[in-house]
Amino acid sequence: MKPAPKWQYDERKPCGVDFTDIEEVVAYDTMHQKFRDYARSSEEIMRRLGLGSGSIVIDIGSGTGAFALHAAKKCRTIYAVDISATMLEYCRQNAERQGLSNIVFCHGGLLTYEHVGELADAIVCVAVLHHLPDLWKQVALKRFLTMLKPGGRLLLFDIVFPSWEENSGAKIEYWIQAFGVMATARMAQEALTHVRDEFSTYDWIMEGIIRRSGFRIDAAEYGDGFQTTYVCTRE
């Protein structure tokens, strides 16, 4: 990962959790598996993007490998990209245990990853883009465009706030408490930190950023708990 210009947003700075600590990485993976079915969600992502045995996919913000480890069993090559070298190493060790040799591990982030391989058929970005302020979200998405083949697909999942919500404060409180019920009190605290200190944005802003970055939005699905999925195509 090459040094970034001094004026560029520093995506390496932690917010809440320090993922350079292996104990934090293991705790993250354990906690998320309490409420996420990695295999099922990975299969759904692959179905929606039309991925198969010949597909090249960039999983940007790959974390502990929730998607990459499953997709590698069905696709040609997965580029697992993460700003945390510790998370990448954790994922690499899991891949080795599973006998997966078609994952390329890349230390980098939304603003710093330089793709040098063959252009990808698809990019998957799950619960990562909210780490950037809106200005830098568009910078990141324009960078994605250069990594994709013409007609390449993007699946973007993140927390996005609905502009039509009349009582957003109460809904946010409920959302935070729900994490404490289905996961742990620590997860509820992380949800609180997300709302207070990170950069999830409104639906109309997010859709505008996506379109102005050069993507067509094929589907925009706003679910419960502010969980939003966009399926897009490079114009």
What does this protein look like?
- This protein is α/β, with parallel strands linked by helices.
- It has one domain: Vaccinia Virus protein VP39 (Rossmann fold, 3-Layer(aba) Sandwich), CATH 3.40.50.
- The chain is built from eight helices and seven strands.
- Strands 3-2-1-4-5-7-6 form a seven-stranded mixed β-sheet, with helices on both faces.
- Helix 3 links the parallel strand 1 and strand 2 (77-82).
- Helix 6 runs antiparallel to helix 7 (185-197).
- The longest helix has 15 residues, at 168-182.
- It starts with 21 loop residues before the first helix and ends with a strand.
Tell me the layout of helices and strands.
Elements: H1 22-32, H2 38-49, E1 56-60, H3 68-71, E2 77-82, H4 85-97, E3 103-107, E4 120-126, H5 134-147, E5 148-159, H6 168-182, H7 185-197, H8 203-212, E6 215-222, E7 227-234
